[in-house]
C-alpha cells in the first residue's frame, strides 16, 4: 500500500513521522510540499520523496489531504484527472465535508473525513473519523490503523464532526489558554514565571494521567481535592461566580457553529 500526504505542514509532517515510526517503509510513502527547500529537508530527514499532486494521485493507494481548506479547490482539480474510484481519499481538512470530494472525484471514490488535533506532533493526537457514502468498514480500518501511529482514534457519524472540531480539534487551545492564565496567577502571587510554569504544566500532565488511568469521573477526582472549608472550594466558588463553566459551554458552542459555517462554504 502506497500512501501520499498532500501538504507537509506541521500536521502532515507529524503524520509522516508517525507512519515511519509505526513501521511503514519510507519507500511506500510520498508527500507534496509547495516550497522546494522544505521538500528537500523532509526528504533528507525521513527518506521519503516529494512529488507533485498529479503524480501522487496517479500512483498512491491512499491519498491523505492535509492542506489548508482554502487550497482545496486547486488540489481537487489536480486529483480529478489522476485518481481512480478505488483510491482511498482521507481528508484532514477542518470543516470540509466528504460530499465535496465525492462531487469532484470519480464516481465511487471512497472518502473518510478526519478531525485530528495538534498533539499529533507528540504522538498523542485525538482523531475522529467518519465515512463518506462509498467508504466501507475496511476503509475505516485502514484509516484507523494509520492514525493509531500518532494517537487515539474514535469513529463518529459525519454530522457530529463539527462538534468534534469544537471539542477536541480546538480543545488543545483551551487547555493552553487555561495554563497561560494559571501561570499568570502564579506570577501575581509572587512566584517566578519558570517556577509557576513548572508547577502548572506538571500538574496538568499528572491530572490528565489520573483521568486516563483511574477511570474515575472528573467530578469524583475534583471532589477528592476539595476539602470542606478549604482552599480549593474557595477557588471553585469564584470560578462559578464568574461564570467560567458557562463561558466554556458558550465558547465550544461558538466553535461548533464556526466549523459548520466553514463547511457550508463548500456545500
TrEMBL record:
Location of the Pyrroline-5-carboxylate reductase dimerisation domain: 158-262
HAMAP family in alphabetical order: P5C_reductase
Primary location recorded for the protein, binned into one broad class: cytoplasm
Domain Pyrroline-5-carboxylate reductase catalytic N-terminal: 2-95
Family per record: Belongs to the pyrroline-5-carboxylate reductase family.
GO process annotations (BP): L-proline biosynthetic process
Gene Ontology cellular-component terms listed: cytoplasm
Protein residues bound to NADP(+): 66-69
The encoding gene: proC
Function statement: Catalyzes the reduction of 1-pyrroline-5-carboxylate (PCA) to L-proline.
Record-linked InterPro entries: 6-PGluconate_DH-like_C_sf, NAD(P)-bd_dom_sf, P5C_Rdtase_cat_N, P5CR-like_CS, P5CR_dimer, Pyrroline-COOH_reductase
Annotated compartments: Cytoplasm
Enzyme class: oxidoreductase
Pfam families: F420_oxidored, P5CR_dimer
GO molecular function: pyrroline-5-carboxylate reductase activity
UniProt keyword terms in alphabetical order: Amino-acid biosynthesis, Cytoplasm, NADP, Oxidoreductase, Proline biosynthesis
UniProt-listed Enzyme Commission number(s): 1.5.1.2
Name this protein carries in UniProt: Pyrroline-5-carboxylate reductase
Reaction(s) catalysed (UniProt annotation): L-proline + NAD(+) = (S)-1-pyrroline-5-carboxylate + NADH + 2 H(+); L-proline + NADP(+) = (S)-1-pyrroline-5-carboxylate + NADPH + 2 H(+)
Pathway where it operates: Amino-acid biosynthesis; L-proline biosynthesis; L-proline from L-glutamate 5-semialdehyde: step 1/1
Sequence intervals crossing the membrane: none
Amino acid at each position: 500500500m502506497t500512501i501520499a500526504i498532500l501538504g507537509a505542514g506541521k500536521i502532515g509532517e507529524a503524520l509522516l513521522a508517525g507512519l515511519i515510526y509505526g513501521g511503514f517503509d519510507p519507500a511506500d510513502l510520498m508527500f507534496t510540499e509547495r516550497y522546494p527547500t522544505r521538500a528537500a529537508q523532509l526528504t533528507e530527514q525521513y527518506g521519503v520523496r516529494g512529488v507533485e499532486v498529479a503524480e501522487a494521485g496517479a500512483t498512491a493507494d491512499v491519498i491523505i489531504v492535509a492542506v489548508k481548506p482554502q487550497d482545496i479547490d486547486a488540489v481537487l482539480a489536480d486529483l480529478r484527472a489522476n485518481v481512480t474510484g478505488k483510491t482511498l481519499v482521507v481528508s484532514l481538512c477542518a470543516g470540509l465535508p466528504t460530499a465535496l470530494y465525492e462531487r469532484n472525484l470519480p464516481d465511487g471514490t471512497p472518502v473518510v473525513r478526519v478531525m485530528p488535533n495538534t498533539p499529533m506532533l507528540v504522538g498523542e493526537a485525538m482523531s475522529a473519523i467518519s465515512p463518506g457514502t462509498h467508504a466501507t468498514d475496511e476503509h475505516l480500518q485502514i484509516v484507523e490503523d494509520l492514525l493509531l501511529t500518532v494517537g487515539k482514534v474514535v469513529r463518529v457519524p459525519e454530522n457530529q464532526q463539527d462538534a468534534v472540531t469544537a471539542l477536541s480539534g480546538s480543545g488543545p487551545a483551551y487547555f493552553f489558554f487555561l495554563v497561560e492564565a494559571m501561570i499568570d496567577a502564579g506570577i501575581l502571587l509572587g512566584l517566578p514565571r519558570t517556577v509557576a510554569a513548572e508547577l502548572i504544566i506538571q500538574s496538568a500532565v499528572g491530572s490528565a494521567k489520573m483521568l486516563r488511568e483511574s477511570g474515575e469521573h472528573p467530578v469524583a477526582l475534583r471532589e477528592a481535592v476539595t476539602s470542606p472549608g478549604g482552599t480549593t472550594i474557595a477557588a471553585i466558588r469564584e470560578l462559578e461566580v464568574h461564570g467560567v463553566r458557562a463561558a466554556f459551554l458558550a465558547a465550544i458552542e461558538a466553535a461548533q457553529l464556526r466549523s459548520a459555517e466553514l463547511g457550508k462554504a463548500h456545500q
